Every structure is written in structure tokens, then in C-alpha cells.
Amino acid sequence: MALTSTPILIICIVISLVYISSAQTCSNYTFSTNQVFNSCIDLPVLQSHLHWNYIPSTRSIQIAYRATQTSTGWIAWAINPTGTSMIGSQAIVAFLNANGTMTAYTTPITSYNPSMKQAALSFRVSNISATYAKNEMTIFGVVGPLNNGTTVNHVWQAGSSVVNNIPQMHPTSGPNIQSVKEFIKFTANPKEN
User: Is 89 helix (H, G, I), strand (E, B) or coil?
Assistant: First the structure.
């Protein structure tokens, strides 16, 4: 019995090491678009990561927000310039639409039942795009200039369904209500984060 279980144990250890070494945190992630970001953070919930480059000359932030998601779901990343919760957040949302292409746009979150329809934000967002590959969605954009400086409150979110190209309500428990971080500081120096 011991002789047959030893090879199985070795195989399990090797497979575990392969999975661990292939796990992509923000610091070792390579974008298929060949974009490079100087700073990143692995967010604590919703299997999400935020990458950025701060552009001091324009007080803007080039971002890539990526999260594990199925092809039927949606993701969003937002800055809340007025508080520390979802209400008041200025969001960028992305999903795989009915024709099979990625859609990404801005939408303000004004209530606990927002429309999730495309609308302008209280600050400029440009170069918005999104990708979907290997069960991961990524939102790209340039946010700013930011009037309140480089320290902001941000929130992120994910939902499991999109109907008529409109993201539907996300769960209201567990990680979905923990996806807020007060005071992330965007700087040109990655060592300051």
C-alpha cells in the first residue's frame, strides 16, 4: 500500500506546485496587450487586481482593473469622490455583450438600484476598452485629471448576469459588500503604495 501511495503523493505535490507557480498576482502578470503598469495591488475580494500608472503632468491615472468572471457576468471598478461606499461612485463597467464583443462604459452609481446605463461621470475617463480571455475580464482606461489629488476611495464589483446589455444586480452579501478600499494613493513611485 505504501509503495502505490508514494507516486500518487509525488504527482499531487507536482501538480500543486504547477498551480501555485502559475497563479498570477498583480506583480507578475503580463497583459496580452503588452501594456506595462508600474504599480498594482491584489484586491482582497472578488479575485480582482488593480494596475496603474500615475501621470503627474496631467494628474491622471492609466488603469487596468482585472477580475475573474464568466462570459455571462460583468465587472466594474469605480472611484467614489464623495464617500467610502457604493453610493456616489463613478464607475467603469464591462461585460461581454449579446453580439460577442466586449462593452465598456462609464456609469454613475446614484442608488442601491442604479440603472447601470451608460452616462457621464463627474470626472473625465478616456481610452476605455475591455478584454475577456481565460475567464478574466479586464477594463482599461485613463481616469482624470483628478481634482481631489491622488488619494481616492475606490470600489469594485462583479455580477453574474447581463440582460439586454444591462448588467443586473450583484449579490448583496459576502465579498460583494466588502469590495471597498478607503484611500488608495496613486503615485508615480510604486514604492509609495
Answer: coil
One digit per residue, the tens of pLDDT, for the chain of length 193 reads: 555 555 443 443 434 333 333 345 777 888 888 889 988 889 887 788 999 998 888 889 999 999 999 898 999 998 888 888 788 889 899 999 888 899 999 999 888 888 888 989 988 999 999 999 999 999 999 998 877 667 788 888 888 888 887 887 675 666 566 556 655 666 655 544 4
Residues 6+ apart with CB under 8 A from 168: 116, 159, 160, 161, 162
Q: Looking at residue 190, what DSSP letter applies? A: G
| Residue 153 burial by Cβ neighbours in a 10 Å radius (0-12, 13-18, 19+) | buried
Least Cα distance to 51 among 161, 176, 154, 140 occurs for 140
Is-contact 135 70, C-beta < 8 A? yes
Among 41, 26, 43, 61, residue whose Cα is nearest residue 151: 61
DSSP states of 104-140: EEEEE--SSS--------SS-EEEEEEEEETTEEEEE
State the pTM of this model.
0.79
